[in-house]
Write a structure and sequence with these properties.
The complex is a heterodimer of chains A (about 120) and B (about 110).
Chain A lengths: L2 E3 L4 E5 L4 E3 L2 E3 L5 E7 L5 E7 L5 E3 L5 E5 L4 E6 L8 E10 L4 E5 L3 E6 L1
Parallel strand pairs in A: 2-12
Antiparallel strand pairs in A: 1-4, 3-9, 5-6, 5-10, 7-8, 8-9, 10-11, 10-12
Chain B lengths: L4 E3 L2 E4 L5 E6 L6 E8 L3 E9 L2 E5 L6 E5 L5 E5 L8 E8 L8 E2 L3 E5 L1
Parallel strand pairs in B: 2-11
Antiparallel strand pairs in B: 1-3, 3-8, 4-5, 4-9, 5-6, 7-8, 9-10, 9-11
Classes of the chains: A mainly beta (about 120), B mainly beta (about 110).
């Protein structure tokens, strides 16, 4: 069955430091992968997506992610974190079942930024 | 272009009642998906509608239903509310059915007492 694992429930990073959020997926075919961010009381905002091609994808707000098929990973990175990046981050895989398609999400990683 | 809108943003209901939530997709988007977000279960897919037809359904009881109108607006209904239905309900729109690239609204926070 398709699944997404985000091993870190909560991460604290100093402002200005680099960030890496981990994501591992389980999916038989070529995956469609996404990172979303959710600020408190808000919906999900799409940060970036990977469908095919270059394994390093650039997103909004200075984020990037690298697809590594051999490791079934799609880790999110940012070279310098800003206090406004504090939020919850979700990794998702586009999955297909007999009925149709849907996004399967990880449990999320909460990012805190310290000054 | 306006984003996905959901109404109401907050709702308090009593166990046993029913509730209807509304979602207006991004202009030009024809597919609407619904997700439930809870602290315990995380984000779970409820169903997807396209051309006024349910195209896919997640693993939720029949108390959860939805519909889509000709203008692509969608509603979801939960009947006989249970305490466990308390959640953030998120609507997402996409251009066509089966598209993984989905854009989410702010959600409706439902509290069942």
């Amino acid at each position: 069955a398709q699944s997404v694992t985000q091993p870190d429930i909560h991460i604290t990073v100093s402002e200005g430091a680099s960030l890496e959020l981990r994501c591992n997926y389980s999916y038989g075919a070529t995956p469609y992968l996404f990172w979303y961010v959710q600020s408190p009381g808000q919906g999900l905002q799409l940060l970036l997506k990977y469908f095919s091609g270059d394994t390093l994808v650039q997103g909004i707000k200075g984020f990037e992610a690298e697809f590594k098929r051999s490791q079934s990973s799609f880790n999110l990175r940012k070279p310098s974190v800003h206090w406004s990046d504090a939020a919850e981050y979700f990794c998702a895989v586009g999955a297909q079942n007999q009925a149709g398609t849907a996004l399967i999400f990880g449990k999320g990683t909460t990012l805190s930024v310290s000054s | 272009k306006a984003g996905v809108t959901q109404t109401p943003r907050y709702l308090i209901k009593t166990r046993g009642q029913q509730v209807t939530l509304s979602c207006s997709p991004i202009s030009g988007h024809r597919s609407v998906s619904w997700y439930q977000q809870t602290p315990g279960q995380g984000l779970q897919f409820l169903f997807e509608y396209f051309s006024e037809t349910q195209r896919n359904k997640g693993n939720f009881p029949g108390r959860f239903s939805g519909r889509q109108f000709s203008n692509s607006r969608s509603e979801m209904n939960v009947s006989t509310l249970e305490l466990g239905d308390s959640a953030l309900y998120l609507c997402a729109s996409s251009l066509v059915v089966g598209s993984y690239e989905q854009y989410f609204g702010p959600g409706t926070r439902l509290t069942v007492t």
